[in-house]
Amino acid sequence: MGCPVEDLAARLGVDETAVREAVGKVGCDEDRVVAYLIWKFMEDAGRLKLIPRSGWWYYGVKEPESVADHTFAVAVLSFVIASILRDMGEDIDPFKALAIAVFHELGESRIGDIHLEARRYIEREVLDEAERRAYEEVISPIGRVGKRVLALYEEFERRSSPEAKVVRAADKLELLFQAFTYEKHGYRTLQPFWDTAENRRDFTHYDLLRGLYEALRRLRGED
pTM for this one? Predict the structure, then answer.
């Protein structure tokens, strides 16, 4: 009797081709198939540790942070901001904000980090479609779990929940905090990050977000 690939694929919510590949590698054992698919996913997710944040090297930062470094900081900041907002009476889930933040850059494991200068030459629709396709391919090995991850990414892209709005702002606040940190280490070429309006568009969702931005400017010595 052959391996019930169709049944296994249906139960896992994974494409049959991926299950056949897994069976060919580890045999017809459900736990081993699932483990193989998880590691296939982690191969992509782990690449974020190797992908540099390209805007930094464009402006001369040597050995810039990775996308994974940035993601970790955004996740921490998102959880803290959402937790404080909840304590201040807002209807927001810090753990959902944390999850959105953890996965918000996952598509870059395939297409890399494309800085703002490069984006001037690529139509927004083209770039969005490329990132969406990359994201769908990255999450495909983990089936239904991947679809839940994709739903978080879609919230982030649409700013369709309080948590997504916080992560959107935290994404830019962390960027500016990193610019401030690099400036403290002697880099003097990073003013474009502060001047770009796109980096400030999400600070109006909550007063706390605006306050964080203004406090950062004061730390930088602007006021």
Answer: 0.94
